[in-house]
Write a structure and sequence with these properties.
With 169 residues, this protein is mainly beta. The chain is built from 1 helix and 14 strands; from the N terminus they run αββββββββββββββ.
Length: 169
């Protein structure tokens, strides 16, 4: 009896810590979503069961069960390790990007982030080594997201830099 309970607890622990198990409410055109608010009709893009590749344009609105939802955020690890993703355009409706959203997207060389973004989570662009570098600073659109040489004591940011996302870690 104790072994059966222990095995069950171990299985639950594995499922809770596994990045391979994701829940989503619906899928449209290969992109996965969770409803944030049925009242406000907002949705979040979340990890699904596919790896995104190539050039991706995210929709501003998506329809599910006869209701049209505004896409307002990109969830935690949504594009995690999508090494074939080369560019992405995020719509103006998105105001937040959660942590590790683009972790390990090593081929991502172009990203359009709307000016209305109010928050970008920790380690969102970790391992995005194809993003452009200017003056030793790596950029995701107007956001400084890393440095090429961490031994320097001074860095020069572009005049249009919107913010820093774990830039100097």
């Amino acid at each position: 009896m104790k072994q059966k309970v222990l095995k069950s607890l171990m299985l639950i622990a594995v499922l809770l810590t596994s990045n391979a198990v994701w829940a989503y409410t619906f899928e449209v055109d290969g992109i996965y979503y969770n409803i944030i608010s049925s009242e406000d009709l907002t949705a979040e893009i979340v990890p699904g069961h596919s790896k995104y590749t190539g050039n991706l344009v995210l929709p501003e609105k998506v329809t599910y069960n006869g209701k049209t939802y505004s896409v307002t955020s990109i969830g935690y690890e949504t594009f995690y390790y999508c090494t074939g993703l080369t560019s992405i355009i995020i719509p103006n409706s998105v105001t937040s990007i959660h942590g590790c959203a683009f972790w390990g997207c090593s081929s991502l060389s172009s990203i359009k982030i709307p000016d209305g973004i109010t928050s970008i989570g920790d380690l969102t662009f970790e391992g995005c080594c194809s993003l452009p570098i200017e003056n030793n600073v790596r950029y995701a659109d107007k956001w400084a997201v890393g440095v090429d040489d961490k031994s320097l004591s001074q860095y020069t940011l572009r005049d249009d830099t919107k913010g820093l996302v774990n830039t100097f870690l």
